[in-house]
Amino acid sequence: MKINNIFVVGAGLMGSGIAQNAITCGYHVTLNDQRKEALERARAQAAEFGHSVEREIAYLSVHSVLHLLGYDHMDEGPMKAQMRAREEEILRELGITREE
Known about the structure:
The chain is mostly helical.
């Protein structure tokens, strides 16, 4: 049996770490945070940015994993630009676009 998709429940430190490793290994990952507030915030942000909730959750997952890998965006300069570029690259590789 070949595993192609991984579903991670809980987007805390452990869940994010599992998701990070799975993404790095090329698996399609669905990250599910059980906190109601997190989903409500993702819905609000998706509406604000004009894309789907699924895309927003994928973005937040990638964003969190990049923080775990040492990326940061505390300035408005090269560090932020590097992180944003990497986020978009990963989402594109996963087939997740802003239209979704």
